[in-house]
Design goal:
alpha+beta, single chain, three-stranded antiparallel β-sheet, 16% strand, Arc Repressor Mutant, subunit A, 9 helices
């Protein structure tokens, strides 16, 4: 009986923490290992899945799904949250690449079938719902920016190509970055390719 009470208490603590992160958060058992034993976490996540309070996204990764009032159903997993959950689980550094970066920065509204993240870990890919999440081993210089926003902007600009970085793109990117973030990004990306850094200077230039 005492054991059951303990597990119920663990379940409550785990779900309280999950709810505290808000809908859309993705996670693995590793996100709780500092406070509970692995058996306690595995049992809690299994029970919470069974109760429909969380969702198993793929092996070892779960989320607290966003819910659509209009559709009256859970929405698809947030691919960036899932990618970050994998990164924490395996202690990788990651950086959204190409279409993933464009999507996250509002430069594309379509979620592509394959989302690629650069990583300092091994090449891996996971099928999640209607898309494939791929981690591509890359040189650390491509994932080694100090700030997440820096890598996002660099990868998005590279994905578009020099000819497509027009005033509309600059304006969209500028809306995503406040003045304080721009100052950090300018310093952080000084080693980026010449035309890429020129685009970043346009984004982070005089703000009206």
């Amino acid at each position: 009986m005492a054991g059951v009470i303990v597990m119920q208490s663990v379940n409550k603590k785990v779900i309280f923490r999950i709810y505290g992160r808000g809908r859309g958060w993705a996670f693995s058992a590793n996100d709780f290992v500092e406070d509970f034993s692995r058996n306690q976490i595995d049992y809690a996540l299994s029970e919470l899945c069974r109760e429909g309070k969380i969702r198993r996204v793929c092996r070892g990764i779960y989320d607290y799904p966003k819910f659509s009032e209009l559709l009256q159903q859970d929405l698809s997993p947030d691919f960036d949250q899932v990618a970050q959950a994998f990164a924490r689980k395996f202690n990788w550094r990651i950086q959204p690449s190409g279409d993933a970066a464009l999507n996250l920065l509002g430069l594309s509204t379509q979620v592509p079938g394959r989302l690629v993240y650069l990583s300092d870990g091994p090449n891996r890919q996971y099928d999640i719902g209607n898309y494939t999440l791929e981690f591509k081993k890359s040189a650390l210089k491509d994932v080694g920016f100090k700030y997440r926003e820096s890598g996002l902007v660099v990868q998005a600009v590279k994905a578009l190509g020099q000819e497509r970085v027009d005033d509309a793109v600059i304006a969209t990117l500028r809306k995503q970055l406040d003045e304080a973030v721009c100052k950090r990004v300018l310093k952080d990306t000084v080693t980026a390719t010449g035309w890429v850094y020129e685009a970043i200077k346009r984004v982070c230039g005089e703000r009206g």
